[in-house]
Amino acid sequence: MMRPVQTVGMQLGYFLHKKFYHTIAICTANRRDSACTTLTELFSKIAFPSQTEIIVVNNGPEEDTNYIREHLRQLYTGSEIPWSVYHEPIKGVSHARNLAVEHAKGDIISFLDDDASPSSVEWQVAVLNVFNTKPEVALCGGPTWLVPPVGFGSHPWWRSSTTDIYFSCLNDYSPGYCPPGLIAGLNASYRMSAIGSTRFKTRLGWSNGKALPLAGEETLFNEHVCTNEWKAWFEDKAIVLHRIEPERYNTKWLLKRAFMGGKTEAVFETIHGRRIQQVRLEALKRIFKAAAKALINVILGRPSSSFSEICAVSSKMGVLSARDIYVE
Q: Which InterPro entries does the UniProt record give (predicted)?
């Protein structure tokens, strides 16, 4: 078992007396192999094993829960890192995340997706250092670097900084305070005392069940946590690698993701008090502008820029398809 990083010095000394300080939670559904890959990579990236616990919440078949539990049993045999695996039968990532919050023993809880892994031990060092030195911070996130599928080109004709956003890729930000909505759910850490009774809204979040087929549950959660003068912080050293599956690394998936992102955008506008009719009118105007820009970029031989505008069209079509909803 590796030893804690020594260069941290006394930065975290105040917390090291606690049995648990840092909970790392991974929620997964129908992707047990990807989750196990993440858990294997995570094992070698934990800087403070005696102050860390691992929680996995499976939102898929119960046999996957047993599979993941056995993987962890073999992986962590002889380790001082405690771990737990739970099964959440109610479909929806928000249900899974809420179960993780309920079971977390740490002062800090970090959520990683089942296809996202810290780039190095520096991720945990950086995250805990932010919370230790900035008592006003309730939420911390960092860069997300896209990792293309094995055997696929890293820069296909359609890829750009715009399309990377649909893969939750964040790179070009400096460390500092930031809007809560900037922090992506696959690399988000929270102070448990700031979370309090706040929970992820179960009518939002990707799901095969009754929840709306929308993203955005983490954005709304972030906004609710960062109230009463709590702040969000972007830490450029807290880097996570996001492995993209082959079935997602293509234009068809990106257009679908843009469409669903547009529906989510419209829902958020109504949550924040805007009339859906006005939101749809603005979306209609953007569709015409984006379509014109796409055509111009085709003529100028700029395929990636053209596809970015086509994604914008798809996104605003999603806005037009949205309706008013009530999120409790």
A: Glyco_trans_2-like, Nucleotide-diphossugar_trans
Residue 237 sits in the same domain as residue 95: yes
Which residues lie below 8 Å from residue 271, measured CB to CB, with a gap of 6+? 220, 327
Q: Which of 107, 57, 47, 112 is nearest to 81 (CA)?
A: 47
Residue with tokens 């843009």: 258
Domain with 153 in it: what CATH number?
Answer: 3.90.550.10
Instruction: Give the pLDDT confidence score for residue 275 in this predicted structure.
Output: 87
Q: Domain end: 187, 214, 248, which one? A: 248
Phi, psi of 183, rounded to the nearest 5 degrees:
-75, 120
Q: Are residues 172 and 241 in the same domain?
A: yes
> Does 4 reside within a domain?
no
Q: Return the SS3 of 191.
A: strand
Instruction: Report how far apart the first and last C-alpha atoms of the chain are (Å, whole number).
Output: 45
Domain assignment present for residue 42? The answer is yes
Q: Write out the residue range of the structural domain in which residue 19 sits.
A: 14-248
User: How far, in Å, CA of 95 to CA of 211, rounded?
Assistant: 10
Question: What is the reported pTM?
Answer: 0.89
Q: What is the separation of C-alpha 286 from the centre of its chain, rounded to a whole number of angstroms?
A: 27
- Within 10 A of 209 (CB to CB), how many other CB atoms are there? 13
| pLDDT for the residue 172 | 78
Does residue 21 lie within any of the structural domains?
yes
Residue 5 lies in a domain: no
Query: Degrees (nearest 5) of the Cα angle 324, 326, 328?
Result: 160
Question: Residue 229, exposed/middle/buried by CB under 10 A (0-12, 13-18, 19+)?
Answer: exposed
Which residues of the chain have a pLDDT value below 70?
1-20, 206-214, 324-328
pLDDT, tens digit, 9 for 90 and up, residues 97-118: 999 999 999 999 999 999 999 9
Q: Is the dihedral of CA 204, 208, 213, 218 positive or negative?
A: positive
State which amino acid sits at residue 295. Answer: L
Considering the domain architecture, whether residues 37 and 167 belong to the same structural domain is answered as yes
Helix 276-299 × helix 303-321 angle, to 10°: 160
Same domain, 26 and 101: yes
Rounded to an integer, what distance in angstroms lies between the CA atom of residue 148 and that of residue 25?
24
